[in-house]
Each structure stands twice: as structure tokens, then as C-alpha cells.
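Customer escalation, tier 2.

The customer says the design service returned an amino acid string that "doesn't look like it belongs to this structure." They asked us to rerun it and document both sides in this ticket. The original C-alpha cells are below, unchanged.
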């Protein structure tokens, strides 16, 4: 994300938010011990995961296509990849 121009403070915020995230649960008034979260579900950022996925996909495509000059001509334009806008 930093290579794509995203500010350092936003990248650090995401890293801190999910790095070794821990939680407790409470069932029938009994609270569990702390445990490490292994899967993210119902996170307040869930609606934004689409955007985070697209940022990661863009970074992966940029790296994968670095130096690639191939593609296919369609309608007079040379396409080397397809991305959803």
C-alpha cells in the first residue's frame, strides 16, 4: 500500500488493528479467557474489505505485469489485463 501512495498512518492503522487481535466471549454471563482471533467476521471494517481487497489485487497485478508487453488487441486497444472499475 505504501508503494501505491497510501499514507503511512493508514497502513499502520490497519496493521495494528489486525496484528495478533485478541478477544473474549461472554455466554450466559460467563466470560471466557482471552484468545487470539484467527478469522475476521463481523468486523466493523467488513464493508470496506472490498476496497482493501482491490488495493491488494492492484498491487499483485502491478507486480505480476511488471515488464510484460503482451496482450490482445480489441477494438483498436491493446489489453494486457482486465480490471473491474
Amino acid at each position: 500500500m505504501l508503494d501505491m501512495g497510501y499514507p503511512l498512518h493508514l497502513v499502520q492503522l490497519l496493521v495494528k488493528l489486525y496484528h495478533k487481535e485478541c478477544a473474549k466471549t461472554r455466554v450466559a454471563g460467563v466470560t471466557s479467557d482471552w484468545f487470539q482471533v484467527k478469522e475476521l467476521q463481523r468486523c466493523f471494517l467488513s464493508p470496506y474489505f472490498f476496497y482493501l481487497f482491490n488495493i491488494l489485487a492492484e498491487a499483485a497485478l502491478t507486480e505480476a505485469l511488471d515488464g510484460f508487453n503482451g496482450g490482445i488487441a480489441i477494438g483498436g486497444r491493446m489489453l494486457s489485463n482486465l480490471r473491474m472499475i
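Tier 2 assessment: The sequence is consistent with the input. The mean pLDDT is 77. The chain has one domain: 8-67. Sent an explanation to the customer and offered a walkthrough call.
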